[in-house]
């Protein structure tokens, strides 16, 4: 079911509405990474003197520039961790557009979605980001203690969190808060597995830029599949 939902989402990636959201999402993500990189370079410039001298070597003037260049791969590495909260924020901002595009193509007989107001989405995202950061800070101790297992732990921890959040946000478009919570609890194992499926490619630089929109579409399909909503038969060609 999860693979089927993901393949349906992948098959719609060239949809004009998807491409519009994808462009916005990629632009916002790259802008965020550039902002972090600029902050890193400014911090290095503030911390290090422009030049200093060492015995037998003489004046050193290139350390800050070298560190600034080294900051580029550092930002790519940092993007692995940044993309998890970015994916959550993306979900809150663009869920209605992505889910609406999926439902218009695959589930045209549905009644209009309740949708989420900007206020509702921002409050939900803010709460989730606080939980996400807090849990990952605690999990950081486990990552350090069990370094060889750190990637697996990262996938499991964030798979649980993202599966919960994406499942909740998709369900809220059609149900009350109580109904969405009941849906999430009823299908916890499936949502967890889908969350892990989304978390793994989030750790791959560049590829992770595509994951938030595919995740939103995949979870939209999952919601309707789990609720027994009949999809429109795929059109060939």
UniProtKB/TrEMBL annotation:
Main location: membrane
Keywords attached to this entry: Membrane, Transmembrane, Transmembrane helix
Subcellular location: Membrane
Pfam families: EI24 (PF07264)
UniProt topology in membrane: Multi-pass membrane protein
TM ranges: 21-48, 68-95, 116-135, 141-163, 191-217
The organism's place on the tree of life at top rank: Bacteria
Name used for this protein in its record: EI24 domain-containing protein
